[in-house]
Amino acid sequence: MSRAKGNVAEDKAVEFLLENGFAIVERNFYSRFGEIDIIAVKDEVLHFIEVKSGLDYESAIQNITPTKISRLVRTANVYMKKNSLDVDFVFDAIVITPKNIEIVENITL
Predict the structure, then answer these.
(1) φ and ψ at 69, to 5 degrees?
(2) How far apart are CA 74 and CA 89, in angstroms?
(3) Is the pLDDT of residue 66 over 80?
(4) pLDDT tens, 37-55?
(5) Where are the alpha helices (DSSP H) in 57-109?
(6) Which CATH number does 3-104 carry?
(7) What SS3 state is found at 56?
(8) What backbone phi and psi angles, to 5 degrees, belong to 36?
(9) pLDDT for position 86
(10) CA 82 → CA 74, 77, 85, 101, distances in Å?
(11) Domain boundaries along the sequence of the chain
Protein backbone atom coordinates (compact mmCIF):
# COMPACT_ATOMS: atom_id res chain seq x y z
CA MET A 1 0.00 0.00 0.00
CA SER A 2 1.28 3.44 -0.83
CA ARG A 3 1.94 5.97 1.90
CA ALA A 4 -0.88 8.17 0.55
CA LYS A 5 -3.40 5.29 0.73
CA GLY A 6 -2.10 4.47 4.20
CA ASN A 7 -2.67 8.06 5.33
CA VAL A 8 -6.25 8.01 4.01
CA ALA A 9 -6.90 4.73 5.85
CA GLU A 10 -5.38 6.08 9.06
CA ASP A 11 -7.48 9.26 8.82
CA LYS A 12 -10.62 7.12 8.47
CA ALA A 13 -9.50 5.01 11.44
CA VAL A 14 -8.96 8.12 13.60
CA GLU A 15 -12.44 9.39 12.71
CA PHE A 16 -13.91 5.97 13.58
CA LEU A 17 -12.06 5.88 16.91
CA LEU A 18 -13.16 9.40 17.88
CA GLU A 19 -16.78 8.53 17.06
CA ASN A 20 -16.48 5.48 19.34
CA GLY A 21 -15.19 7.26 22.42
CA PHE A 22 -11.42 6.96 21.99
CA ALA A 23 -9.00 9.83 22.50
CA ILE A 24 -6.02 9.90 20.14
CA VAL A 25 -2.71 10.09 21.97
CA GLU A 26 -0.28 9.85 19.06
CA ARG A 27 -0.03 8.84 15.42
CA ASN A 28 2.85 7.18 13.61
CA PHE A 29 5.13 6.50 16.56
CA TYR A 30 8.44 5.11 15.31
CA SER A 31 11.15 3.10 17.01
CA ARG A 32 14.03 1.13 15.58
CA PHE A 33 11.74 -1.91 15.65
CA GLY A 34 8.85 -0.47 13.65
CA GLU A 35 5.88 1.85 13.70
CA ILE A 36 2.61 2.07 15.59
CA ASP A 37 -0.07 3.64 13.40
CA ILE A 38 -2.28 4.99 16.18
CA ILE A 39 -2.01 5.13 19.95
CA ALA A 40 -5.34 5.89 21.61
CA VAL A 41 -6.94 5.67 25.03
CA LYS A 42 -10.42 4.62 26.10
CA ASP A 43 -11.64 3.79 29.59
CA GLU A 44 -8.12 4.23 30.99
CA VAL A 45 -6.73 1.54 28.67
CA LEU A 46 -4.02 2.39 26.15
CA HIS A 47 -4.65 0.94 22.68
CA PHE A 48 -1.80 0.34 20.25
CA ILE A 49 -3.55 0.15 16.90
CA GLU A 50 -2.43 -1.25 13.56
CA VAL A 51 -4.47 0.01 10.58
CA LYS A 52 -4.96 -2.26 7.57
CA SER A 53 -7.07 -1.65 4.50
CA GLY A 54 -8.03 -3.74 1.53
CA LEU A 55 -10.75 -4.59 -0.94
CA ASP A 56 -12.14 -7.11 1.54
CA TYR A 57 -11.68 -8.09 5.17
CA GLU A 58 -9.62 -11.20 4.45
CA SER A 59 -7.05 -9.47 2.24
CA ALA A 60 -6.59 -6.70 4.81
CA ILE A 61 -6.36 -8.88 7.93
CA GLN A 62 -3.88 -11.28 6.31
CA ASN A 63 -1.35 -8.45 6.25
CA ILE A 64 -1.08 -8.65 10.04
CA THR A 65 1.64 -11.26 10.22
CA PRO A 66 3.43 -12.68 13.27
CA THR A 67 6.43 -10.54 12.31
CA LYS A 68 4.25 -7.42 12.18
CA ILE A 69 2.77 -8.24 15.60
CA SER A 70 6.26 -8.79 17.04
CA ARG A 71 7.37 -5.38 15.77
CA LEU A 72 4.22 -3.78 17.14
CA VAL A 73 4.82 -5.28 20.59
CA ARG A 74 8.49 -4.28 20.64
CA THR A 75 7.67 -0.74 19.52
CA ALA A 76 4.93 -0.48 22.17
CA ASN A 77 7.47 -1.51 24.81
CA VAL A 78 9.74 1.31 23.64
CA TYR A 79 6.83 3.76 23.83
CA MET A 80 5.87 2.64 27.34
CA LYS A 81 9.45 2.87 28.59
CA LYS A 82 10.13 6.21 26.86
CA ASN A 83 7.02 7.72 28.47
CA SER A 84 7.46 5.99 31.86
CA LEU A 85 4.00 4.44 31.62
CA ASP A 86 2.62 1.70 33.82
CA VAL A 87 -0.94 1.37 32.52
CA ASP A 88 -3.22 -1.30 31.11
CA PHE A 89 -2.79 -1.68 27.36
CA VAL A 90 -3.98 -3.78 24.45
CA PHE A 91 -3.01 -4.36 20.81
CA ASP A 92 -5.83 -3.85 18.31
CA ALA A 93 -6.28 -3.61 14.56
CA ILE A 94 -8.65 -1.53 12.52
CA VAL A 95 -9.61 -3.14 9.24
CA ILE A 96 -10.90 -0.78 6.58
CA THR A 97 -12.71 -1.99 3.47
CA PRO A 98 -14.68 0.06 0.94
CA LYS A 99 -17.92 -0.81 2.77
CA ASN A 100 -16.90 -1.19 6.42
CA ILE A 101 -14.59 -0.21 9.26
CA GLU A 102 -14.09 -2.78 11.99
CA ILE A 103 -11.97 -2.93 15.12
CA VAL A 104 -10.34 -6.24 15.96
CA GLU A 105 -9.39 -6.33 19.61
CA ASN A 106 -6.47 -8.21 21.20
CA ILE A 107 -4.67 -9.21 18.01
CA THR A 108 -1.84 -10.76 20.02
CA LEU A 109 -3.98 -13.58 21.44
Answers:
(1) -65, -40
(2) 13
(3) yes
(4) 999 999 999 999 999 999 9
(5) 57-61, 66-82
(6) 3.40.1350.10
(7) coil
(8) -110, 125
(9) 94
(10) 12, 8, 8, 31
(11) 3-104
| 43: amino acid identity, one letter | D
Between 81 and 63, name the one with better pLDDT: 81
Residues in the chain, total: 109
> Whole-prediction pTM value?
0.92
Helix, strand, coil abundance in the chain, percent, nearest 5: 35, 40, 25
Tell me the residue type at 45.
V
Place 7 in a pLDDT band, splitting at 50, 70 and 90.
confident
Q: SS3 of 59, please?
A: helix
Rounded (10°) CA dihedral 59, 60, 61, 63: 90
Per-residue pLDDT, averaged over 50-77, amounts to 93
